[in-house]
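Example record for the data management plan.
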Amino acid sequence: MEDDSAAQKAISELNGREIDGRKVRVSFSEEKPRPPRSSRV
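Corresponding structural encoding:
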């Protein structure tokens, strides 16, 4: 998306909408925290 307001507009227009007989759920994605990697020696 160009900016946060464009993303928010797309979410509000599409979230809960029915497409091909199925309700669509749209939200922001968030990066999942990753555990630290252990080094192999």
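Summary line stored alongside the record: Strands lie at 18-19, 22-23.
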